Amino acid sequence: MLTKTKCNGISEHGKNSNLDGNISGETQLNLLKFRRNSLFALWVWCCRLRLYNVQDSSSRGLIRSRQRVTLSLLRYSLAVIIVLALTGSFWWTLSITSASKGKVFHGYRRLQEQLVSDLYEIGDLSLGFSRSKELGYCSEEYENYVPCFNISENLDHGFSDGKEYDRHCEHVTKKNCLVLPPVNYRIPLRWPTGRDVIWLQNVKITAQEVLSSGSLTKRMMMLDQDQVSFRSVSSNFDIEDYSHQIAEIIGERNASYFTEAGIRTILDIECGYGSFGAHLSSHQLLTMCLASYEASGSQVQLTLERGVPAMIGSFRTKQLPYPSFSFDMVHCARCHVEWDKKGGLYLVEVDRLLRPGGYFVWTDSLVNSQRTPRKKDNLKKWNAMRLLTENLCWEMLSQQDETVVWKKTTVKKCYAARKSSSPSLCGKDNDVESPYYRNLQPCIAGTHSHRWVPIDMRRKWPAQAQVNSAELGMHGLSTEEFGEDSLNWNSAVVNYWSLLSPVIFSDHPKRPGDEDPSPPYNMLRNVLDMNAHFGGFNAALLQTGKSVWVMNAIPTRGPNTLPLVVDRGFMGVLHDWCEPFPTYPRTYDLIHAQGLLSLEFSEKTRCQMMDLLVEMDRILRPEGWVILKDITRVIELARSLATHLKWDARIIEIENNSHERLLICQKPFLKQQSI
Length: 675
Description:
Distance between the termini: 35 Å
Number of strands: 20
Helix content: 25-40%
Strand order of the largest sheet: 1-19-20-18-17-14-15-16
Structural class: alpha/beta
């Protein structure tokens, strides 16, 4: 049976209660249950007919006789069901009084939706046993599997000369299995403790890789039995002194004043293990680590394990799936990118990503000519860098030791006054604001954009998260539309947070109250919003004091609101959800998606919902959470599929919203040795 428990605008499907205390409602429930059970019986009869078909030839005559009897019974049963349905509906209508009509109809509507859900499940079963059983487990070799970055498959398809390390999704072989964690996997420590200490067995890295790490920030690691700890100071490098040096070059006292210079978001190329971003996080700065795929000792995997933003990507051949003007600073500390190659094509992509007035920080041994006189090759590279940056209208501010900082121009007229016309400006038709893994372009982008606003003229963080009317107009939005969205999210996040407890899956869930507080603010750290829209979920999480960072993904199939998301000071990426996400397994503590399922699967589907859910399971940490909000029909189907993934799942009703539901799921902690 069904119950309706209200709490902060949310109600739940449960058991053992009357329907609004109405006797006629109980009778109607019994009728619906009878109809549902009858339909299930019909399905059973159909299955038995299939079984009869596999009998030997000596019993075929008997089978035909049974089939004729069965068909007669089916016809009779359908006639009875139709008569009962019509009679019951007519009697139900007559029994409704004007005082109870609203309540009864509400309950009746819910019963109908439950019946439809059950019929969907029967339909899934009728497609065969293979769809109804739980998915199996991938072999141990796939515990760190990243689709689209399978080097051996890429080599088999003819990719070479470094391209085998790039992203190639066109030849991905789907794995219809669940990726298990390593044998001794442990739940990560909560933020901020987990920023400085991670469990060694949670990531794929050898002790030799820890001890031989070569970059500046990689050296700041210590191996201690089953843990890897990260220090801010090593024998020859101090991350605080380093960030202080950068601040001085751009004219600020220290890193805590970066926000005063208009800096909020930073792209850290080949970030080591995220120590630069981890340090800056204490100054309200958001740093995205971008590094190539690595089978072992992955910079991205370890950075994410620390609770610092990271994503697999590279500059080799494709533009990154970020909009133009996404970052206030791009940082490269011995990142091994040859900036002078391909006519400065990689620098042109950096220029596209930088906001006007943004900073490019380059730390490399060839910068310091005083300590180590430049050899002929290094001198050639240095001169090439200076010429390329000059042609991009970048101003070299200063250099200290091995670090040099350039500032992107804030004046478009600078391009017309250059000595060289190379690289040229992108034409309006070729100046794509949000490219999706498009080939690198040899032209300067963004000059046609209405978002050309210098960082020192933008509102400083955290004020920039609350967009004003002028900024909304720049993105073609009204104040009313944006304000309503923000208001809805602020109340929704409070309710969502109260649901993140295993008691939600019990038959009689105990709702959090004064004596049973909501989960702690730091229960989650890495959050993925698969259909971020305006970034309202991200903003509401921060406004309610949650210590999270959010990867705001905008589906390629829907409206492109990603420029607005990044302009609010959030991290965002464009993504096609029929393709795997560029990250390692066990990346996110919470995955949220509002309206994504109906967007991707309502019409002209290009992939299957089960494939998407399997991908979500891959990137979700054990004991991680999934919150899906969508139309009822789609949510019911997602619930039935979630059971194949062994997820705990419960559907939650939304008050004053009869056509949408929430699906709350939790991934279990399954260990390899117990399988």
